[in-house]
Design a protein that fits this description.
This protein is of the alpha+beta class. The protein has a single domain, classed as Jelly Rolls (Sandwich). It contains four helices and seven strands; from the N terminus they run H-E-E-E-E-E-H-E-E-H-H. The strands form two sheets. Strands 2-6-4-5 form a four-stranded antiparallel β-sheet, with no helix packed on it. Strands 1-7-3 form a three-stranded antiparallel β-sheet. The radius of gyration is 15 Å and the shape is globular. The N and C termini lie far apart (about 45 Å).
């Protein structure tokens, strides 16, 4: 998301986000409801829940959540729930709309990111080491 801005612009956009904590079990996005902001999970684990209530999979850290709902003003097609305590960055819906109005090129960039499911993601916490059994 930030790559469409120069260094000064990145700092400006990053300052619009607030840091939030969510306890295990907290619903970040709820299917059928519009997102109240754009979320970027930094630490923790998140599960995607389908319309039937079944867990579909987990989400990678660093990937923006709620962008489709925010861009289209439509309800989220999925539920996202914290399966551990989570640290997130949140950009409120109001600030998101202000940002889009000021930087319309960001919309095209976000749409491009949404089309690329293999978009690189990152985590501030290293993956746990796996020990091979001997």
């Amino acid at each position: 998301m930030f790559s469409s801005f120069n260094n000064g612009g990145r700092s400006e956009v990053a300052a619009l986000f607030e840091v939030r904590r969510a306890n295990q079990g907290t619903v970040i996005l709820e299917a059928g409801k519009r997102a109240d902001g754009l979320y970027i999970p930094m630490i923790g684990e998140l599960a995607v829940i389908g319309p039937d209530g079944e867990e579909i999979g987990s989400l990678k850290l660093g990937r923006a959540l709620g962008r489709h709902s925010m861009l289209t003003q439509s309800p989220s097609p999925m539920t996202v729930r914290a399966t551990s305590d989570v640290l997130l960055l949140r950009l409120s819906a109001r600030r998101f709309q202000e940002l889009v109005a000021a930087h319309p090129h960001m919309v095209a960039h976000l749409e491009e990111l949404a089309r690329r499911p293999s978009t690189p993601t990152f985590s501030l916490v290293p993956e746990p080491r796996r020990h091979s059994g001997a």
